[in-house]
Amino acid sequence: MTGLVSAERGVGGTALADALPEAVVVLFAAVTHLADPWFLFGLLAVAYWFAGDRLAASPRRAGATAIAAVTCAYAAVALGKAWFAVPRPPGAMGPADVPTWLPGLLAGWYEAQVLSDGFGFPSGHATGGAAAYLSLALLYDRAWTDRTRLFAAGAVAVAVAASRVVIEVHYLVDVVAGLCLGAGVAAAALWLAGDPRLRRRTASWVDRREPTAGLDPTPAFLLAGVVSTAAAGVAFAGGHTGEVVEAGIGIATGLGGAAGWRLVSGDEPAVPVRIAVPALAVTGALWVGAYALADSLVVTLAATTAAVVAVVALPALPARIGAVRPDGTASD
After folding, report:
1. How far apart are CA 146 and CA 149, in angstroms?
2. HEC string of 275-322?
3. What's the confidence (pLDDT) of residue 90?
4. How far apart are CA 70 and CA 124, in angstroms?
5. Would you give the DSSP letter of residue 270?
6. Res 139 pLDDT > 70
7. Helix count and strand count (H, E) for the chain
8. Which three-class secondary structure string do you get for 59-92?
9. What is the per-residue pLDDT across 231-277, written as a single tens digit (0 to 9) for each?
């Protein structure tokens, strides 16, 4: 099956990137951050915690479903990379051609952007970006118009995908496959969550007017766990240690999301800033620790699970705190 995607799969993307001015390449190196995993999950967590009913009928259900959709997308990427196991373009291996006019700090940042290891197909940034921005456009359905939201989502996803080719860490076929995969996974995740727009035969007209009101992200979170488990098996069989860790993080994220959602009703108000700020610091530290301690799979899985449970369960925390008196007894 690995022969379905060739290691030599470039179709001129590298030549186009080489022809662009250095300033344009640097700009695209910045654009690629819009689909970095840390940025996407931070964006989704903030939207999940703070969005109000001016954005969706049920902003907590919408936000959790968006997180589940992107979790599924990264699970699909882990499976695809372990399955096809094809390399990135030679330029991603280095040495980096850093523009001489960049100051030292930006030169280090740029070098980190244009060098990347691991397998190349499909593009994780293109897949994650398509899934995230399409999910946000569909789920926060009270903002702007449908056309405006979808256009903006598509523009950002395509810009991110293009950036991966311009900075030469992916071939064109990698990002095109990623865009298609991300869009398909987002649609599947929303269908599993019960989005009535994708279940027209069983949804009433009222349901379709308020599509987020009855969403349940649990099936999508569990699907991410299942796909990540398959990815871990394929990666382990192929001897791809890095991909085993990535798949393990996917398992923890999927199961942690499903567990965290069981602690909320889905109808909670926005999270108070006084609770969200320290929670963001704690969960961020857990995420960083999960990747920094990737050599210990058990520690990585534990830290990831704790972080995701905390993120998803946080909207329920204010009510639970309010239900307990300072002396530890339950309030009336």
Report:
1. 5
2. HHHHHHHHHHHHHHHHHHCCCCHHHHHHHHHHHHHHHHHHHHHHHHHH
3. 86
4. 11
5. P
6. yes
7. 14, 0
8. HHHHHHHHHHHHHHHHHHHHHHHHHHCCECCHHH
9. 999 999 999 988 998 999 999 999 999 999 999 999 999 999 999 99
